[in-house]
Amino acid sequence: MKRTNKHLGIKLWSILSGSILIFLVLYMNIYIFSKGKEGLSIDFLMDMPKGFPLGTDGGIFPAIIGSIYFTSIACFFAGMIAIATAIYLNFYCTNKRIYGGIHMVIQSTAGIPSIVLGLFGYTFLVVHLNFGISLLSGGMVLGIMIFPFIEVKVEKAFQEISKELIYASYALGISKAYTFFKIILPICFGEIISAIALAGGFAMGAVAPIIFTGGVLYAPEPKGIFSPAMALPYHLYILIGEGISIENAYKTAAVLLVLLLVLNSFSIFIGLFRKVE
Amino acid sequence: NEVNRDQAAESTEDVFKSQILFKGSSTLAPVLSKISTEFIEEYETWDKVNKDFPNKSLDIFVSAGGSSAGVKSVIDGSSDFGMVSRSVSDEEKGKIEGYQEFKLGVDALTVSVNPKNQIYKLKKNLSTEEIQKIFSGEYKYWDQVETSLAHEEIVVVTRDLGGGAHGVFQKKVMGDAQVKADAIQAPSMGALVTKIIENKNAIGYASYGLVNQNGGKIIPLDVDGVAPTKENIISGDYKISRPLLVVKKGTLLPQEETFINELLSEEGMKTIERMGFVPAK
Amino acid sequence: MDHIIETKDLSIYFDQKKILDKINIKIKENKITAIIGPSGCGKSTFIKSLNKMVHEEKNATIDGEILLHGKNINGMEKEIVREKIGMVFQNPMPFPLSIYDNMIYAPIYYGIKDKEKLGNIVKQKLIIAGLYDEVKNNMKMQATKLSGGQQQRLCIARALTVEPEILLLDEPCSALDVKNTANIEEMLKKLSHQYTIVIVTHNLAQAKRIAQYTAFILNGEIIEYDETKKLFENPQDERTKQYIEGIFG
Amino acid sequence: MDHIIETKDLSIYFDQKKILDKINIKIKENKITAIIGPSGCGKSTFIKSLNKMVHEEKNATIDGEILLHGKNINGMEKEIVREKIGMVFQNPMPFPLSIYDNMIYAPIYYGIKDKEKLGNIVKQKLIIAGLYDEVKNNMKMQATKLSGGQQQRLCIARALTVEPEILLLDEPCSALDVKNTANIEEMLKKLSHQYTIVIVTHNLAQAKRIAQYTAFILNGEIIEYDETKKLFENPQDERTKQYIEGIFG
Amino acid sequence: MHKKFEKIFSNSIKGITFFSVMILICIIIFLIKESVVIFDEISLLDFIFGDKWNPVRNPPNISIFPMILGTLYVSFVAMTIALPIGVGAAIFLTSVVNEKMRKMIKPSIDLLAGIPSVIYGLIGLLVLVKFFEIHFDFSSGESVLVGGILLAIMVLPYIISTCDESMIKIAKRYKMASDGLGISKWHMIRYLILPASKKSILAGIILALARAMGETMAVMMVIGNSPIFPKLLGKTQTIPALIALEMGGAQVDSLHYHALFAAGLVLMGILFVVNMLFYYIKKNIDY
Ligand SMILES: Nc1ncnc2c1ncn2[C@@H]1O[C@H](COP(=O)(O)OP(=O)(O)OP(=O)(O)O)[C@@H](O)[C@H]1O
Ligand SMILES: Nc1ncnc2c1ncn2[C@@H]1O[C@H](COP(=O)(O)OP(=O)(O)OP(=O)(O)O)[C@@H](O)[C@H]1O
Ligand SMILES: [Mg+2]
Ligand SMILES: [Mg+2]
Ligand SMILES: O=P([O-])([O-])[O-]
User: Fold this and answer.
1) d(CA A124, CA A111)
2) DSSP string of A121-142?
3) Where does the ABC transporter domain lie (chains C, D) (predicted)?
4) Are residues C79 and E1, on separate chains, in Cβ contact within 8 Å?
5) Which CATH architecture does the domain made up of A44-276 adopt?
6) Is the pLDDT of residue E160 over 90?
């Protein structure tokens, strides 16, 4: 019985999909880099926005720094609450109703348009808690936005660990916390990092949540978490939206992609030192 | 919360408030950020602006979000100034205690088309009725506007119908007529201009500032025989225009006053003009 | 009171399916009790209920009472119960760590820091489980790479590191050869002077050899529970008789 | 030629450690061959080498030859070898699918599409493995929720669906009670008229009961390989003797 | 000592979970609070099922049925494109390419997720919309189809990354058992890995759908934002686009302003219903 041609369909499907994926990745990146490479220089990275109107010349240094801050705050905040929530739901929550309820809330809020989250952040963080238009407010709103994405992925990672392994630890009378840190975390570490990286990319490219909460058109590097700041996507948005400079918008996008690449290679780097199951 | 705010305000009396935040119209935001950047570069710290001020860094921030968001932030007190590129309604004024406004300039909306569209050669001028008919969908094809044009569908591009820019256009041109439902609503002036640049059948009301910045890539038409030129806009002959305002709740702090004066100075007006708008003075 | 664990009308359901049906049993202190019965009758479920492991299954419903030293375990924290009642599962499940790290996992948790002490515990428990000689030069090897029988012995040794009062063993010798089985049986007999041991086994000879008491479960019910000798030599129930004669189950 | 598999100087290393040392054995066709030996001696490794499963381990090195029907299996595709040589692993590993889907997994691959036929195969093989009655109303249940012994029987039934020429069984009865064990043994005896069966077992009585040939492995070497009767009644090697007398292992 | 640690750990976990759920509930309450005002003026049913949107007219029309359909349609198109490609690509990554290649491709997929939506919108406008205008002779290329294609690219990373991690785990864990039956890789993919990944695929769909239904900037730039009933090749508007487009211009506390929030609330309601649906599907898978 020769079965070489069996499953031709699924083979074709996966190879076709893979090719489409690779094409898309290459296309998007090459498109952006080819449009953005001209005049992309150290000066562009290290300079303040200049020119007339502002942004047609000079660089995007403060926006790079601002984006790093915004993304870090968002990832830290969202990572913390998302991992905690995933731990609770997967290891502590015994009540099916609560479990289902929390899930519903999380998944339903995942689709709230980010602009509405921004308005919520504006009302709640900026005005009510008096954080002002600041890195903190913007970062937290971004965090709220990516929280469901991290939570769902981390919880899935937890669920996929063999139950028996966890039970083997519980059966030794060992607490959930200890089991978590010694057995579960090492196994899931890579996946948690990759979830945060994926969501971090989302946060790094988002404009709507920070329009009302933390982003400004121009600012030097932020002095603290209570200052407003520039951000790459916001800068981009203004460059494109007000028709200031499409070329610089592509350059900015290229820089943003490089930044993401750095973020990702960081996560790969961490992943290399951890062995998955 | 109110109490909090008041305390914050009080403490700023003794603690010098070195930060000024502008929020609002995306049309004005680039202007303000340009002027403020220059101001900051020139002086760096407040004491260099005026000896009476302490040696504190000059932090002037500009944030966009739309004219109404600017008004909202002034009401909420989350920003010091609002930028508005339309007139402020009485209802809004009522919500702002001690309302003050500073007019920086005027922006006109030009009825513009793609350079590939032969209309500007054949028929440089559109009457208000024609514009109404184009925007309301009564004219569907270009050859209905001018018979020698191609029989191609007119692509109408507007800004969001609830926004300030469209409000001006509605009032000054459309009157009671409604823009057709399948018009493209561009999310920003830049997108509107991009669409006109990219689509040869597009027509839309591009900001005067952007027409100047995109010299040649889009072509403004005359309206009722009046060309959108600086003189015509100042004189009011060109009718589709809107004011560019900065609004404030309550009295100005001395440092704020200094900056507003800077805005209204000759330097400031020059910048507004260079951005393509018509300065107030 | 010579019994250490008592269940009262213990019933367990998975989803809607009844797996255990009103189990009433008193497990004697410092004795070895064997649980026998056909595959799928509920033996594992029963012993897993004693240290609250069944409680971890989301689709399980538990009725009735389980008393440890006369106290209902429902009122006790899981960790406390499990510290007192150690367990070795039917499928050996070493942690994806080195052999050594598997062994010091619990001792470190229970506060032993000293390297030397840890080393001693590891050595001593591995010797008891009869694994020491085979792995002494390979302590840093991934435990998941061990052979089936070696994994089983590792898990027994690991359970011993907790020093529980009661030890639940689910077919601990299923992957072991004669010699290792004898070894483990020897160890259990010795331990039974200080510990209470409950062992699930499908090896009737083993039950006869080491257990003072034996319970026979069939379809989730305890059919008979008695001194091993009596149960095997003079079963009261027809079904028990048939089972130990190998007719049935 | 009455043998179906032959190994020539088969040595296997994991990393640098020698696990099997120059194994030379001829496995007789349509007979049951038992592999016995103490835990960790290399039994599983040996039978896993026969159907190229050891070849999947990244850290394994394989020396020597394995001949199937006189042809070196190195030259054959893995799938072909494994289609001919079925295997049941020591640790039952049901797929995370329903019981039914576990059972039809291989038949579909081997080209059976017809629903009814599939249903028949499932039923027939489950009956052979003695699991049918227990699961017939629960065919859609996740197989991973079965009890230990049930999982083991499922895996045996699943291996049978391939209809291989040779069946390798690694301690297939370790989690089974007397009745089920007898059942499986009965089945193996019947199958051996058409199939060649190699069974790893630590249960010497079982080897005696069902195997015509027995090989005794110690520390990766074949110490003795002979007809079962001869090997048990009259072992040639002192170590074999000691092992079957249970002194050593 | 560990008891104390466990106490601290479990309490902080519970505390943080409570905190995060509270935030989400606050958002929901905020949304409701900002929305309800409009229901003095218009009934919920009219708001949802009416077909005219023109909030600045007098009297205003505030009904969002075209936008609801637009949102659903665009997301549906996006998912129909992204799901097969995403799952296929996940299989591709697990089974076709080797470990090294996979490690190279994976981060670039994350990169795809990080491209700012404004850039997606711009490329969509300059490439896709243009493409349809030139090659299909549309008067304007802004359409549901373009929005759907663009969104599909944007959500692809979410589907792929949720699926391929589980697929790799399943492949690793059961490879031996499957190989032992003499079964080829592709049969294993089709009959073991795919069915066993159902849950992960579902999780991927939930994430991707949430992302698709909530996406604002990119969609807004390529669908024309006309509040009319959607056609595959015609313009339409989605709820997030509507909100983003008009929020900056809606006067504070006007009916318009609150109607935009109400639209957001309706979107959340839709997502809730969709999630309920998935919840029941998942329950059936679980058995
Ligand atoms: N992947 C591996 N890497 C390193 N060592 C291994 C690996 N697999 C098995 N071993 C070692 O090889 C030896 C033989 O293992 P094998 O599984 O063949 O034993 P066995 O005879 O089947 O024992 P048991 O009866 O306990 O199952 C053991 O010492 C084991 O630790
Ligand atoms: N999590 C579960 N969900 C549903 N059914 C289950 C679950 N765990 C076990 N069962 C069922 O409960 C019954 C008893 O299982 P248990 O593991 O207690 O049997 P056992 O006596 O240990 O059998 P064996 O000797 O084969 O290990 C079996 O029919 C099994 O299919
Ligand atoms: Mg069991
Ligand atoms: Mg073995
Ligand atoms: O942002 P606007 O300038 O359109 O109000």
Assistant:
1) 19
2) HIIIIIIIS---SSHHHHHHHH
3) 5-244
4) no
5) Orthogonal Bundle (1.10)
6) yes
Is there a contact between E3 and C79 if contact means CB atoms under 8 Å apart? yes
The CA-based angle C16-C18-C22, given to 5 degrees, is: 135
CB atoms within 10 A of CB E287: 9
Q: Cβ–Cβ of E181/D159 closer than 8 Å?
A: yes
C54-62: long-range pairs with CB below 8 Å, 24+: C54/C12, C56/A163, C56/A167, C56/A170, C57/C14, C58/A94, C58/A96, C59/C14, C59/C15, C60/C12, C60/C13, C60/C14, C61/C12, C61/C13, C62/C10, C62/C11, C62/C12
Cis peptide before A148 (omega within 30 of 0): no
- The H-assigned helical ranges of chain E are 2-36, 44-49, 65-91, 99-114, 117-123, 130-135, 144-179, 185-188, 194-196, 198-214, 217-222, 239-247, 255-286
pLDDT: is E167 or D2 the higher one?
A: E167
In this complex, the chains that touch B, judged by 3 or more CB pairs closer than 8 A, are: A, E
Q: Is E62 a residue whose pLDDT tops 50?
A: yes
Q: What is the pLDDT of residues D21-77, one digit of tens each?
A: 898 999 998 899 999 988 888 899 999 999 888 888 888 899 988 998 888 888 888
Q: Which of C12, C13, C14, C87 to mutate to test the pocket of ligand 2 (most atoms within 8 A of CB)?
A: C14
Residue whose C-alpha is closest to residue E181's, from D6, D118, D157: D157
Please give the domain boundaries of chain D with CATH numbers for all domains.
3-245 (3.40.50.300)
- Name the closest residue on chain B to residue A240, using Cα atoms: B190
Distance CA A263, CA B85 (A): 39
Bridge pairing between strands B155-159 and B241-249:
unpaired
Which residues on chain C are in Cβ contact (under 8 Å) with A179? none
**Confidence at A136, pLDDT banded by 50, 70, 90:** very high
Q: Say yes or no for a CB contact (<8 Å) between C105 and A169.
A: yes
Q: Output the six-digit token pair for A254.
A: 């290229």
In chain B, positions 70-89, which contact chain A (CB-CB < 8 Å)?
76-79
Lowest mean pLDDT among A38-47, B35-44, B172-181, B204-213: A38-47
**Option in C51, C80, C109 nearest A171 (CB):** C51
Please state the pTM of the whole predicted model.
0.89
- Say what the ipTM of the complex is: 0.87
Return mean pLDDT, chain C. 88
Physical contact, D and A (3 or more Cβ pairs within 8 A): yes
Closest CA to C229 of C198, C202, C247, C204: C204
Written out in words, the top-level CATH class of the domain with range E41-283 is mainly alpha
Residue E55, pLDDT score: 82
Instruction: Tell me the pLDDT of chain A averaged across its residues.
Output: 86
Q: Tell me how far apart the terminal alpha carbons of chain A are, to the nearest angstrom.
A: 36
Q: Strand D32-36 vs strand D196-200: parallel, antiparallel, or unpaired?
A: parallel
3-state DSSP assignment of residue B92: helix
Cα D152 to chain center, whole Å? Answer: 12
Sheet holding D71-72, edge to edge: D17-28, D3-14, D60-68, D71-72
Contact C198, C26 (CB under 8 A): no
Query: Taking residues C119-140, what's their average pLDDT?
Result: 90
Q: Would you say residue C228 has pLDDT above 70?
A: yes
Domain spans of chain E, in order of start? 41-283
Q: What is the rounded CA–CA span in Å between residue E99 and residue B239?
A: 66
B-interface mutation test, from E251, E254, E256, E258, most B Cβ less than 10 A away: E251
Asked whether E201 and E167 are in contact (CB, 8 A), the reply is no
Distance CA B61, CA E83 (A): 43
